[in-house]
Amino acid sequence: MRNPRIYQASQFTLNETVTLSDDAFTHVVRVLRLKDGDTITLFNGEEPFQYTATLCNVSKKSAQVKVIAQQENNSESPLNIHLGQGISRGDRMDFTLQKSVELGVNTITPLFTNRCGVKLNAERLEKKRQQWQKIVISACEQSGRTHVPIVAEPIFLADWLTQQTSALKINLQPKAQHSIMSLPMKNTRVRLLIGPEGGLSDEEIRQANDSGFIDVLLGPRVLRTETAALTAITALQCKFGDLK
């Protein structure tokens, strides 16, 4: 019997019955077609726990679950990565967000840069951000994570660069002189800047350097934006995180 992992922003207590949210109900009952007595795993995105529950009182419009067990989940990396990702076109951004979550990223800020090529009004931008957040949730369900990374409100690169942080700040770009694998690590936090298709402009790279970002490279080849982000996250997790 399959046991899908489902996100729901609720508090779960052993032996209590909880009504599934609309999104969880749609996924569990209408998509997966589970019925009374079937088992699912729930997590709320905040606690380091997941909960085994059985479906009950399933109807055409709603369903409940009874929580029958609690398990600790230790799937989070000791490395905290905040990805500042230049907004890319089409499915590239969706792919980058999905895979970066699987690799353990903690926060994602979509960035408007000189070459991002994406223009949206406020309403469409918020709908896009909500879509990205759903992609992140789905990636957590699939990958076994219990912490749900936040997709922050998209902002201009210049504003993101000025945010205060104690994290190691790095900018991946092919003209750098230093390897990402040679970085010193003073704490467990990293801010990773990745440009869009076409990369960052020379002026944006200078602004990043003035804000304390270190230029690093991964090798002799120029990587596409989605490849760059995922390769950099993997390298960081191998050196400082939990990919051993």
Annotate the secondary structure layout:
Layout: E1 5-7, E2 17-19, H1 22-31, E3 39-43, E4 49-56, E5 64-72, E6 80-86, H2 91-102, E7 107-112, H3 122-143, E8 150-151, E9 155-156, H4 157-161, E10 168-172, E11 178-179, E12 189-194, H5 202-210, E13 214-217, H6 225-240
Parallel strand pairs: 1-3, 6-7, 6-12, 7-8, 7-9, 10-12, 10-13, 11-13
Antiparallel strand pairs: 2-5, 3-4, 4-5
Helix pairs in contact: 2-3, 2-6
CATH architecture name of the largest domain: 3-Layer(aba) Sandwich
- Rg computed from alpha carbons, rounded to a whole number of angstroms: 20 Å
Tell me how many strands there are: 13
Instruction: Spell out the CATH superfamily of the largest domain.
Output: SPOUT methyltransferase, trefoil knot domain
User: Describe the biggest sheet?
Assistant: 8 strands, parallel
Number of domains: 2
Give the low-pLDDT segments.
none
Write down the overall mean pLDDT: 93
Instruction: Give the N-terminus to C-terminus distance in angstroms.
Output: 32 Å
From N to C, what is the helix and strand string? EEHEEEEHEHEEHEEEHEH
What is the CATH class designation of the largest domain? Alpha Beta
